[in-house]
């Protein structure tokens, strides 16, 4: 999947904004939101929050987790544990990118927060690389990866699944040779149906 | 009583709205699965048509609003998001239909008879036409000019099959016990997928779980 | 003689994953001729092999070359078909003249049929509810309301945006505007993008 597609999915997350206008409820297909009252916080999907922010119709209320102490704790936990810690939500990276990108003035300590989030991402990516390496070396065709978010899993594609596919092919071929050591390979062109839609 | 009538009317409206919302969520899951599964999945045309109806209805309402109304802009943005999901979903399916047209048509022929078809009638027609065009093209350009008995379009050799053993990531929507992972050495391993857990493994053992919604590809 | 030409053909096809080369009519004809020759030789020798078993291997090798030529020719066509399909999704049903030139007449006919098949399918979408069909070749990327920050370089006056907002562009004023609506003014030097 494209990172933009993962971002698209993450944009459905609900966050809080403070509008500078007033409107009755709006009935979107994905849900109803409102009524909008200038100065009062209201929950809307992230994509809508971004649009309103860009049109200068609202302020963003940073999510609870987007705050120095919380993030420091998460970072420490991530450093300490050899497993992946459970992140505040499935799309923390998408929220961070969009909110800190378009509305950093609404986020206290935005610059430090950007740094801590990047640090957390780097630690997790490094763990992911180590895990992928270990998985391949163990010849395994199976792994458990709880608490990895969609964006992180997407970054492992196509490398990890492709590598595991190839490993399986190699293992199969090796097994075939063990079973038929003297078979003359008379068919010069065997169809290998390995394919994945991109 | 008046109050009761109002309440019934409201709940009916609410049900309709909740239904559209649920359809959208379901369609988005279906899109995600279709993007990530190596094989073509059973179609969700009912969801697509429901969304198209919603889009049509919404577009009519938007046209009644002045173009500069903020609400119009908001609705338009949502509609373009839904259109993206629909278009990308259907295109992904077409790509698979084109790539695997020979095995898909073979399998679909049997499935149509038992009413368990994966393709919509229009997709099926598209697949048939696509294969026919490809065959004719190859015949005209090279096959008919080949010597003697080499002129045949050998479907079994031309066929490309999806790799059912390719590795995929998934999340378990509920707890599933006893998924059998085949080992090459014949030593099968059985694993349990706890609700909410995430895994990477071969697609084949969990193909049915994707189709019945028990797992979500990620 | 033994399927080397066809490899050159395939290398040509796969050299650039994105662009398509002109259809190599010439090479294809040569390869087909090669196949006819191999086949004829085999026919002759096949009759003789009943008496002379040592010819059997030669016949097998030629047969393998024949099969390889067939498979690779089909692969060449198939590889080009894949690129031609992309053209339909990128350019639409009408190809620019310089692209059309790269296709053989047969390929162009196949392109037309592919295009019609696609159009027919797209038209059918939502038929039951009175929809006019959807163009799947649009809406392939996630929609983004892209805004950029710009600095106004000169007094321009009022700019009316698509959504009705009116912005006053005075020299040195900064604004957040939809990317699509700034392009002209940026090109004219009235607005400058601040990254």
TrEMBL record, chain A:
Q: Does the keyword Secreted apply?
A: no
| Alphabetical UniProt keywords | DNA replication, Nucleus
Coiled-coil ranges from the UniProt annotation? none
Q: Which residues form the signal peptide?
A: none
GO CC, alphabetical? CMG complex; GINS complex
GINS subunit domain segment(s): 65-170
- What sequence ranges are listed for the domain DNA replication complex GINS protein PSF2 N-terminal? 2-61
User: Would I find Nucleus among this entry's keywords?
Assistant: yes
Q: Which residues lie within the region annotated Disordered?
A: 178-198
* Chief location of this protein within or outside the cell: nucleus
Biased composition range(s): Polar residues: 181-198
Please give the biological process terms from Gene Ontology that the record holds.
DNA replication; double-strand break repair via break-induced replication
Compartments, record wording: Nucleus
Pfam family for this entry, one: Sld5
Provide the family line. Belongs to the GINS2/PSF2 family.
Q: How does it assemble?
A: Component of the GINS complex.
The protein's name: DNA replication complex GINS protein PSF2
Q: What gene name does this entry carry?
A: LOC118266987
UniProtKB/TrEMBL annotation, chain B:
Record's subcellular location: Nucleus
Q: Which SUPFAM superfamilies match?
A: GINS helical bundle-like, PriA/YqbF domain
Instruction: Kindly indicate whether the keyword Nucleus belongs to this entry.
Output: yes
UniProt cross-references to Gene3D superfamilies, sorted A to Z: 1.20.58.1030, 3.40.5.60
Q: Name one Pfam family in it.
A: Sld5
Specify where it is mainly localized.
nucleus
**Domain of life from the UniProt record:** Eukaryota
Give every GINS subunit domain span.
54-140
Which CDD domains does the record match to this protein? Answer: GINS_A_Sld5, GINS_B_Sld5
Residue ranges of the DNA replication complex GINS protein SLD5 C-terminal domain?
162-218
What are its GO cellular component terms?
GINS complex
UniProt GO BP: DNA-templated DNA replication; double-strand break repair via break-induced replication
Establish whether keyword Ligase is in the entry: no
Which keywords does this Swiss-Prot/TrEMBL entry list?
Answer: DNA replication, Nucleus
Q: What job does the chain carry out?
A: The GINS complex plays an essential role in the initiation of DNA replication.
Family statement: Belongs to the GINS4/SLD5 family.
Task: Identify this protein by name.
Answer: DNA replication complex GINS protein SLD5
Q: State the species of origin.
A: Spodoptera frugiperda (Fall armyworm)
Gene name of the encoded protein: LOC118262415
From TrEMBL, chain C:
Kindly state which keywords UniProt assigns to this record, in alphabetical order. Answer: DNA replication, Nucleus
Domain GINS subunit residues, every copy: 45-125
Compartment(s) where it occurs, according to its Swiss-Prot or TrEMBL record? Nucleus
Gene Ontology cellular-component annotations: GINS complex
Q: Which GO terms describe its biological process?
A: DNA strand elongation involved in mitotic DNA replication
Chief subcellular site? nucleus
| Annotated ranges, domain DNA replication complex GINS protein PSF1 C-terminal | 144-194
Described by its record, this protein's role is as follows: Required for correct functioning of the GINS complex, a complex that plays an essential role in the initiation of DNA replication, and progression of DNA replication forks. GINS complex seems to bind preferentially to single-stranded DNA.
Which family does the record assign? Answer: Belongs to the GINS1/PSF1 family.
Question: Could you describe the subunit structure of this protein?
Answer: Component of the GINS complex.
PANTHER family this protein is in?
Answer: DNA REPLICATION COMPLEX GINS PROTEIN PSF1, PARTNER OF SLD5
| Protein name per the record | DNA replication complex GINS protein PSF1
According to its UniProt entry, this protein's organism is: Spodoptera frugiperda (Fall armyworm)
């Amino acid at each position: 999947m494209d990172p933009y597609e993962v971002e698209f999915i993450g944009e459905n997350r609900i966050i809080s904004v403070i509008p500078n206008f007033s409107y009755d409820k709006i009935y979107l297909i994905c849900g109803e939101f409102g009524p909008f009252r200038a100065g009062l916080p209201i929950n809307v999907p992230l994509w809508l929050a971004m649009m309103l922010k860009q049109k200068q119709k609202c302020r963003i209320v940073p999510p609870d987790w987007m705050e120095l102490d919380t993030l420091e704790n998460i970072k420490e936990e991530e450093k300490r544990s050899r497993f992946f810690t459970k992140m505040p939500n499935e799309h923390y990276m998408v929220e961070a990118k969009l909110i800190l990108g378009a509305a950093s003035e609404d986020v206290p300590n935005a610059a430090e927060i950007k740094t801590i989030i990047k640090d957390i991402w780097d630690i997790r990516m490094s763990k992911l690389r180590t895990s992928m390496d270990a998985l391949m070396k163990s010849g395994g065709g199976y792994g458990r990866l709880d608490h990895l978010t969609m964006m992180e899993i997407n970054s492992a594609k196509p490398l990890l699944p492709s590598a595991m596919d190839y490993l399986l092919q190699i293992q199969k071929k090796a097994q075939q040779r063990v079973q038929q050591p003297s078979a003359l390979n008379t068919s010069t062109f065997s169809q290998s149906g390995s394919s994945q839609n991109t | 009583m008046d109050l009761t009538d109002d309440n019934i009317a409201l709940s009916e409206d609410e049900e309709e709205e909740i239904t559209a919302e649920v359809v959208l969520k379901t369609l988005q899951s279906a899109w995600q699965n279709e993007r990530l599964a190596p094989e073509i999945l059973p179609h969700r045309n009912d969801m697509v048509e429901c969304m198209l109806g919603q889009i049509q209805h919404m577009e009519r309402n938007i046209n009644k609003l002045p173009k500069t109304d903020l609400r119009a802009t908001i609705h338009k943005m949502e509609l373009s998001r839904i259109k993206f999901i629909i278009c990308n979903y259907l295109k992904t399916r077409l790509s698979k239909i084109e790539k695997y047209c020979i095995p898909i048509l073979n399998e679909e022929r049997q499935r149509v008879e038992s009413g368990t078809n994966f393709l919509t009638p229009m997709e099926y027609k598209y697949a048939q036409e696509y294969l026919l065009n490809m065959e004719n093209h190859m015949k005209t350009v090279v096959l008919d000019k080949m010597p003697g008995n080499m002129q045949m379009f050998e479907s079994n050799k031309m066929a490309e099959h999806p790799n059912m053993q390719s590795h995929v990531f998934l999340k378990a929507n509920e707890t599933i016990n006893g998924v059998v992972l085949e080992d090459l050495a014949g030593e099968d391993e059985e694993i349990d997928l706890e609700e909410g857990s995430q895994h990477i493994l071969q697609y084949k053992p969990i193909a049915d779980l994707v189709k019945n919604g028990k797992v979500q590809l990620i | 003689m033994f399927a080397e030409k066809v490899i050159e053909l395939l290398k040509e096809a796969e050299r650039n994953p994105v662009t398509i080369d002109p259809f190599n009519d010439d090479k294809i004809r040569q390869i087909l001729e090669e196949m006819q020759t191999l086949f004829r030789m085999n026919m002759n020798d096949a009759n003789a092999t009943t008496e002379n078993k040592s010819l059997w291997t030669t016949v097998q090798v030629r047969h393998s070359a024949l099969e390889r030529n067939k498979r690779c020719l089909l692969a060449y066509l198939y590889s080009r078909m894949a690129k031609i399909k992309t053209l339909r999704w990128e350019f639409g049903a009408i190809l620019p003249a310089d692209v059309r030139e790269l296709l053989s007449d047969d390929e162009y006919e196949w392109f037309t049929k592919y295009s019609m098949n696609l159009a027919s399918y797209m038209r059918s979408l939502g038929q039951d509810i009175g929809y006019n069909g959807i163009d799947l070749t649009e809406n392939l990327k996630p929609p983004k309301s892209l805004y950029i920050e710009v600095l106004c370089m000169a007094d321009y006056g009022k700019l009316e945006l698509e959504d009705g907002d009116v912005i006053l562009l005075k020299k040195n004023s900064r604004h957040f505007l939809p990317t699509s609506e700034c392009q002209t003014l940026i090109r004219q030097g009235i607005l400058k993008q601040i990254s």
